[in-house]
Design goal:
Strand content: 5-15%
Largest sheet: 5 strands, mixed
Helix content: 40-55%
Shape: globular
Number of helices: 29
Structural class: alpha/beta
Distance between the termini: 46 Å
Radius of gyration: 25 Å
Number of strands: 9
Length: 713
């Protein structure tokens, strides 16, 4: 399991500080191979925060020793003496980093933030030490440039290409001074990403809006009131109601609260994260990140950071990505103007009359939806119980791909002999499932961490803690889906919004992509960023299908299947408010690209003015702000999507086109599902991804299904 494939998009490539040379011996619990059933499972029950520093340092030392054994080999480089040991290197580091990554995203409290701030630059240094190793690159390069390369198998050639490109993009061809500067930049960026994330986490947890009077709840459905009361109780505000400063809490409040002044307060609090002029303000960090990224791009021979990032993507250039966006942007912004006119007509009948502002958009959009389609999305929530939605995802995975999900025993060991093997979890909220294929073959493990809590980053995501491979024996995957749903009162079911239900299916699509991987070498599993969202976005489609909804959308009290009349309204309203949804998202894409096409050197910047001017120049309607403003745009300033947030719309072109194939033959057509699994999900990045897509679809993708789906023709 190669170290290179374990470098997630969140961590950029990095170099090793001399302080690691004398790293102390690490505790065995974090370094030891995972034991237990299913090829071993993460030892979450043995994690202590104070062990991360020595364990990661020791794992890095072990990985470096493995690399030295490759470079010290006096024999000429061959696939067997270079690529094979490189693919096997870093197993201990991968295990420890997987545990560290869990704590970073979901258990970031107490002493961990300080540990993370200390380790991120060292992790950056470690990766650069390998990626800029001249002797190692020389061996890989000699293989890549050798005529004998053509005699390798197709997946071996792809693996060699992947490694070669990563070395080059990390600066392996630079002179020593250039390598050292890139390494220094990467270490500083790692520290800045950590600071950005921790500032954002502090603002999400430190700026909750507490309501203390019943009349402040006007318009809110009972289920939302209940979850707000539970959130307030958990934070020590008994008898109050909390609007937690996360998307899954704020957006329902903005949709239903009839108290306009409270909507504005909640909106301003949420959209000002990282932009409060205090110790957690991210504007200074953003300017430093942009300057360093620009300098690195110039050193590596690229015009801008965006050109560097997109060089190995499907889009290839910023102009190509922008061209796709601009096929959609004018139609979306025009639709926004039409939507606002409809909302303003309703607002004009209110007293006092108002002009629609950003904090009014969701509230009046819901009123238009109810008036036009007689659909109150809140009426759907009793039919959207989290537990049943999970079963609905399992149902779709079974129908399409023959997968079965069986719960494993988690938490404390049971004394009952008949209980399944114990699977440790890192928090009591986490559940674990064994995944098997239709023939009973073990596929992997799926962990589910659904609820918001202190120390957990907001949003939803998928993580692979162990990737599939079959090079050094059959290795099955271990994946997780993480969300931030708000718990209800004890004993009450968790009811979620329609948008959250779609997000749940989206992230499950990422998990299926990892579960169904069938590559020989882990190093070729990773796909380009603007392709990786295809499996997740195509999975969203089944959420909307009546045949699927009738299997899991059942009233949490009566068990009644969601009424056909409600589904008809949902289908009729399917294109409703797409101006807002499309424009809000594309505005963030354009903002990302504007920031990262700044030509180096990037000097001092007024972040607020730049963002405002960029959005004005693009023609963003005043009633909308980007889905992610710069100061909390974690995807691009602390994650792996810099210059790549457009990937979601690029992948949606693919997904809309791909789902047309399912609709043509039936949404559970075995042959279509088998083709999608074989040609897309199983292949990872082992072949050119456009070739894979064309093999499934029989042609290149078309943008028309996307425009038709969103009603933007």
């Amino acid at each position: 399991m190669t170290f290179l494939s374990r470098i997630t998009p969140i961590i950029m490539s990095i170099s090793l500080s001399s302080s690691l040379a004398a790293a102390p011996a690490a505790p065995q619990p974090l370094l030891s191979p995972w034991s237990g059933p299913y090829g071993g499972v993460p030892a979450f029950d043995r994690v202590r925060v104070e062990d991360f520093v020595p364990a990661l340092r020791a794992a890095m030392q072990e990985n470096l020793a493995e690399i030295r054994r490759i470079t010290d080999d006096p024999a000429p480089a061959t696939f067997e003496n270079t690529m094979v040991p490189l693919e096997l290197a870093g197993e201990a580091y991968g295990r420890v980093f997987a545990l560290y990554h869990v704590w970073s995203g979901t258990m970031n409290t107490g002493d961990f933030p300080a540990v993370q701030a200390q380790l991120e630059p060292e992790i950056a240094a470690f990766n650069d030490r390998i990626l800029q190793d001249a002797a190692l690159f020389a061996r890989v390069r000699s293989l890549y440039e050798s005529p004998s390369r053509q005699r390798l198998g197709a997946e071996q050639q792809r693996l060699l290409w992947v490694h070669y490109e990563r070395f080059v993009r990390a600066g392996a061809k630079l002179e020593q001074a250039g390598k050292e500067r890139v390494a220094a930049i990467n270490q500083r960026l790692a520290a800045l990403y950590t600071g950005f994330n921790q500032n954002l986490l502090a603002d999400e947890q430190g700026h909750t809006l507490y309501l203390t009077a019943e009349d402040q709840l006007a318009g809110l459905p009972d289920s939302l009131r209940s979850s707000m009361a539970q959130a307030a109780t958990e934070s020590g505000h008994h008898g109050a109601w909390a609007v937690v400063n996360t998307r899954s809490a704020v957006e329902p409040f903005l949709t239903y609260s009839s108290r306009r002044e409270l909507r504005e307060r909640a909106w301003r609090t949420f959209y000002s994260r990282g932009d409060n002029g205090d110790a957690h303000d991210n504007k200074g960090i953003i300017t430093q990140i942009l300057a360093l990224r620009g300098e690195r791009a110039r050193l590596l021979g690229f015009a801008t950071h965006a050109h560097w990032r997109l060089d190995d993507a499907m889009a290839r250039t910023p102009d190509s990505a922008l061209s796709l966006m601009m096929q959609v942007w004018p139609r979306a912004t025009q639709r926004v103007r039409e939507e606002v006119a409809d909302m303003q007509a309703i607002a004009d009948r209110d007293s006092p009359r108002i002009t629609i502002e950003p904090w009014d958009y969701r509230y009046y959009a819901e009123k238009v939806r109810q008036a036009r389609y007689a659909l109150d999305t809140n009426e759907m929530k009793p039919y959207l119980q989290l537990e049943r939605l999970r079963e609905g995802m399992f149902h779709v995975a079974a129908r399409l791909f023959g997968l079965r999900f069986e719960p494993c025993a988690g938490g404390p060991r049971s004394s009952a002999a008949a209980q399944p093997a114990r699977i440790p979890v890192y928090h009591p909220d986490v559940s674990v499932y064994e995944v098997s294929d239709r023939d009973g073959r073990h596929v992997g493990l799926w962990y589910f961490d659904p609820y918001a809590r202190t120390g957990k980053h907001s949003g939803a995501w998928m993580t692979a803690w162990r990737n599939q491979e079959r090079f050094d024996g059959e290795v099955t995957t271990i994946v997780s889906n993480t969300a931030n749903f708000v718990k209800g009162q004890p004993g009450e079911p968790v009811l979620i919004s329609w948008d959250d239900a779609v997000t749940l299916f989206h992230e499950f699509g990422h998990a299926l992509h990892s579960m169904l991987s069938q590559v020989r070498y882990e190093g070729v599993a990773r796909t380009p960023q603007d392709f990786v969202e295809l499996p997740s976005q195509v999975m969203e489609n089944w959420t909307h299908e009546r045949e699927v909804l009738q299997t899991f959308a059942k009233h949490y009290k009566t068990g009644e299947v969601i009424p056909a009349a409600m589904l008809e309204k949902l289908e009729a309203a399917g294109r409703f408010n797409q101006g807002f949804a499309t424009t809000e998202y594309l505005a963030a894409c354009l903002l990302d690209m504007k920031w990262h096409t700044l030509a180096p050197p990037v000097g001092p910047l007024d972040v607020t003015a730049f963002e405002r001017d960029a959005m004005t120049a693009a023609g963003l309607p005043s009633t909308i702000v980007p889905r992610y403003r710069s100061t909390y745009f974690q995807h691009v300033f602390a994650g792996g999507y810099s210059s790549g947030y457009y990937s979601y719309v690029w992948a949606e072109v693919l997904d809309a086109d791909a789902f047309e194939a399912f609709k043509e033959h039936g949404i559970f057509d075995p042959a279509t599902a088998r083709s999608f699994r074989t040609n897309v999900l199983e292949k990872g990045g082992s072949e050119d991804v456009m070739t894979l897509y064309e093999r499934f679809r029989g042609r290149k993708p078309s943008v028309e299904p996307l425009l038709e789906r969103r009603g933007l023709q």
